[in-house]
Specification:
heterodimer; A: alpha+beta; Ubiquitin-like (UB roll); five-stranded mixed beta sheet; 3 helices; 23% strand; B: alpha+beta; Aldehyde Oxidoreductase, domain 3; four-stranded mixed beta sheet; 10 strands
Chain lengths: 83, 158
């Protein structure tokens, strides 16, 4: 599964994307956030509890209870500031 | 119905001509053009002028999100034509960022749907602004006013 980071989160994590194979007990977006925090201090900082960020599963906005089983791509990003 | 995300500028007149040509049911066309505004930010005693920004987006998701928003406008109002053109990349103050155009038999629907599209794309499409100031680059935080503007339309069930 590919994980992508955008805007300041990309800088904090230190990469734009990465290929990961989380264990079977990582079932939802929220589980993935907790699991990713253990990968580096940059991950832990970007995905910290209380940090303002959202997620998408296969390019659709997703809440933290959305399952990630079978997903090809999960993305994390700050609130949108377009237009 | 059309959605486009591109790096280059767009020609408003040419876009509107293309949108309406051949459709004689359109009685009103409401158009919104968003521009990069010159801004001043204060940090302590320091005042910085922002005269350029880079708009990052999420290719693939951006197009899907804009198509979803456009489809929602078409569900809520009787529209004959809709167009969203959104730029990404580096832009300077005065440059065009976004074009939203809505054609309908009657003006009320065109005005309302145009405003709806602009409000929703600001909060539901994956774009992020990186501002250039003399002190360096700075990511823009989300705007509470934008959330409130988008939320107005959540309450309306049409």
């Amino acid at each position: 599964m590919k994980v992508r980071y955008f805007a300041w989160m990309k800088r904090t994590v230190g990469m734009a994307d990465e290929e990961i194979s989380p264990p079977a007990e990582v079932k939802t977006v929220g589980d993935l956030v907790v699991w990713l925090r253990g990968r580096s201090t940059g991950h832990a900082e970007a995905l910290a509890e209380g940090a303002a960020f959202g997620a998408a599963v296969d390019q659709r906005t997703a809440t933290f209870d959305v399952p990630i089983g079978g997903a090809r791509e999960v993305a994390f990003f700050p609130p949108f500031t377009g237009g | 119905m059309a959605v486009r995300v591109q790096e280059g500028d767009f020609d408003v007149g040419a876009e509107l001509d293309r949108l309406t040509t051949g459709n004689k049911k359109i009685g009103g066309l409401a158009v919104f053009v968003g521009l990069v505004r010159e801004m001043h930010v204060r940090e302590g005693l320091h005042r910085d002028r922002i005269d350029a920004l880079t708009l990052e987006h999420y290719p693939g998701m951006t197009e899907k999100a804009l198509e979803d928003i456009e489809a929602e406008a078409n569900r809520r109002w009787p529209l004959e034509a809709t167009l969203i053109v959104h730029r990404h990349g580096r832009m300077e103050a005065g440059d065009r960022i976004v074009l939203v155009a809505v054609g309908s038999p009657h003006r009320e629907a065109a005005f309302e749907a145009c405003e709806f599209l602009v409000d929703w794309l600001k909060t539901k499409a994956p774009f992020w602004k990186l501002e250039e100031t003399p002190a360096g680059e700075k990511w823009v935080g989300a705007h509470e006013g934008d959330d409130a503007a988008a939320a107005r339309w959540e309450k309306k069930s049409q």
